[in-house]
Design goal:
alpha+beta, 13% helix
Length: 154
């Protein structure tokens, strides 16, 4: 009897942890456009994937552009969430971002495109839970850390 109870508790805990990890699925945020013509709506697909719809990036010439996340609205104090170097302008209005840098959506509330060489913020979005009856939730966070001139990498 004790063994069965333990098994039930273990399965319940596993399901709870899985649900908690994906609890941000559907959260969205509108990217601010601070440089390079960046724009779009970021949506959490699952624990390790983001999707940007209405994606725009006109200039991708900055030397070290990567998608970053931050637990606060300060992207400069954040961390890389994707190891894919952004090197070209948008060629489609949809972009999938794989979170392959050891972070998951549970680690951040703000996502943005960051130039690591110039410490420049090209735009960011604060992710928020969807509001019933409303599309494109989330908010933009005007960033003050766009230091120096740099072009966007896309």
């Amino acid at each position: 009897m004790q063994s069965k109870l333990f098994t039930v508790l273990a399965i319940s805990a596993t399901l709870h942890l899985t649900a908690a990890a994906d609890s941000k699925a559907g959260w969205t945020g509108q990217l601010s456009s601070l440089d390079g013509g960046l724009g779009g709506i970021v949506t959490v697909v699952d624990n390790t994937t983001l999707m940007v719809n209405k994606y725009t990036l006109e200039d991708a010439s900055a030397p070290a552009l990567y998608w970053w996340g931050s637990a606060s609205a300060n992207l400069k104090g954040g961390f890389r969430i994707s190891n894919k170097h952004v090197t070209e302008a948008a060629t489609s209005d949809t972009l999938t971002i794989a979170l392959d840098a050891g972070k998951t959506v549970a680690d951040f509330a703000t996502v943005g495109l960051w130039c690591e060489k110039f410490s420049a913020n090209f735009g960011q979005a604060t992710l928020a839970a969807p509001v019933p009856g409303q599309t494109g939730g989330g908010s933009t966070q005007p960033a003050k850390q766009n230091a120096g001139a740099a072009n966007v990498v896309g």
